[in-house]
Amino acid sequence: MANYRFYPAADQRQDEIWGYTCEQWGEAQAEKYIRGLHSHIQELADRKRLWKSLPGTLIVPPDLDIDVFFSRYEHHYLFFRELSDGAIGVMSILHEAMDIPVRLGEDLGQIDRGKRPLKL
């Protein structure tokens, strides 16, 4: 079973999702959504054939020389990369209504400045 880790920006987005969902629909729904999100990420880690490649010219900063992949979970898009140990590094989690190019550029810019994924 492959594993996954979150970069700080994605970890922060996850906290925001929890807070918003908890405030709007209660703690039980927030827990259900986050558990489902983690199950989806684990499925991605276990099944590389589910990965969709993000065109590098779309949003990835030119000096960030990595392949970026994405997947959708309910109302959120996950952006991730494969780490050197084969794990998934979740770089960003963005709601479908957000300005995705701008927000993703901000999150990937943090990675470009040397931030590393958190340990699980």
Automatic annotation (TrEMBL):
InterPro entries: RelE/ParE_toxin (IPR007712), RelE/ParE_toxin_dom_sf (IPR035093). Keywords: Toxin-antitoxin system. This is Death on curing protein, Doc toxin. Pfam families: ParE_toxin.
